[in-house]
């Protein structure tokens, strides 16, 4: 929920009409998402291991770092949190929906969409982006880089995860808006479909499977590569 409040919130601030941050640009959006990830990981890391992303959860389970029995309830919680976060953003920017004419920009404040609609290419972009995310999280947070004895894994790890997300957004976010997280896209897309937003248009469900399938595939590939090649 925190991730989407701050992530969708920065998109809304940039794309909706008459906000203080209107037209602030891509750097602001990617920074907002990166900081949102960092805040969310700090907030819930001690409770759940900071599983904010079904692709990460499934990837970790595939290599034995997380119990498969816990995966369904984690994913359900991630989806619910994302849905609720999108609802909070809708409330925070309540006057701005009516003064924003573009249906596409209203949808963008909730979920991702391609710059050039090509399903194969869009799917590949999401696979690559999530591959970088999951491999980066696994590799950077390995004990060889962070020594738990000195508390670095708890105190500094969320910042490093935020850096990974920022880097992905800056370098790989252009083609699809870098969902790299099925919950981040599906939950807010469902909120867009259900919330009373004037002139919102459709929720582009024909595209919705790509930011779900792509991240899961990319996360699995990264986790399996990490398990096979990375030193213990």
List the defining traits of the structure above.
232 residues; mainly alpha; Glycerol uptake facilitator protein; 11 helices; single chain; 66% helix
CATH fold assignment? Glycerol uptake facilitator protein
Shape descriptor? globular
Which architecture name does CATH use? Up-down Bundle
Could you spell the SSE succession in H and E letters? HHHHHHHHHHH
The helix content is 55-70%
| Main beta sheet | none
Q: Uncertain spans, ≥5 residues at pLDDT below 50? A: none
The name of the CATH superfamily reads Glycerol uptake facilitator protein
Instruction: Give the terminus-to-terminus CA distance.
Output: 33 Å
Number of helical stretches of at least 4 residues: 11
CATH class: Mainly Alpha
Q: What is the CA-atom radius of gyration, in angstroms?
A: 17 Å
Oligomeric state of the chains in view: single chain
> In percent, how much strand structure appears in the residues?
under 5%
Structure description:
- The protein contains eleven helices and no strands.
- The chain has helices at residues 2-15, 26-48, 54-62, 71-92, 94-98, 103-108, 119-140, 152-155, 157-172, 182-194, 210-229.
- With 232 residues, the chain is mainly alpha-helical.
- It is globular and about 55 Å long.
- The chain has a single domain, classed as Glycerol uptake facilitator protein (Up-down Bundle), CATH 1.20.1080.
Brief description of this entry?
With 232 residues, the chain is an all-alpha fold.
Q: How do the strands and helices of this protein lay out in sequence?
A:
Elements: H1 2-15, H2 26-48, H3 54-62, H4 71-92, H5 94-98, H6 103-108, H7 119-140, H8 152-155, H9 157-172, H10 182-194, H11 210-229
Helix pairs in contact: 1-2, 1-4, 2-9, 3-4, 3-11, 4-10, 7-9, 7-11, 10-11
């Amino acid at each position: 929920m925190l991730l989407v409040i701050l992530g969708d919130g920065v998109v809304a601030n940039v794309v909706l009409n008459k906000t203080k941050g209107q037209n602030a640009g891509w750097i602001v959006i990617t920074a907002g998402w990166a900081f949102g990830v960092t805040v969310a990981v700090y907030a819930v890391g001690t409770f759940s291991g900071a599983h904010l992303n079904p692709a990460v959860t499934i990837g970790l389970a595939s290599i034995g770092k997380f119990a498969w029995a816990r995966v369904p309830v984690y994913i359900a919680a991630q989806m619910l949190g994302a849905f609720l976060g999108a609802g909070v953003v809708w409330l925070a920017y309540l006057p701005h929906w009516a003064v924003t004419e573009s249906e596409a920009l209203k949808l963008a404040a909730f979920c991702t969409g391609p710059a050039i609609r090509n399903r194969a290419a869009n799917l590949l972009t999401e696979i690559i982006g999530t591959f970088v995310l999951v491999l980066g999280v696994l590799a950077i947070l390995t004990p060889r880089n962070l020594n738990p004895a000195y508390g670095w894994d708890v105190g500094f790890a969320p910042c490093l995860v935020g850096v990974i997300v920022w880097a992905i957004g800056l370098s790989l976010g252009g083609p699809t808006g870098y969902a790299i997280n099925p919950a981040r896209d599906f939950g807010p897309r469902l909120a867009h479909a259900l919330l009373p937003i004037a002139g919102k248009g459709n929720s582009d469900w024909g595209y919705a499977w790509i930011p779900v399938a792509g991240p899961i595939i990319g996360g699995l590939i990264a986790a399996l590569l990490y398990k096979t090649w990375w030193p213990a």
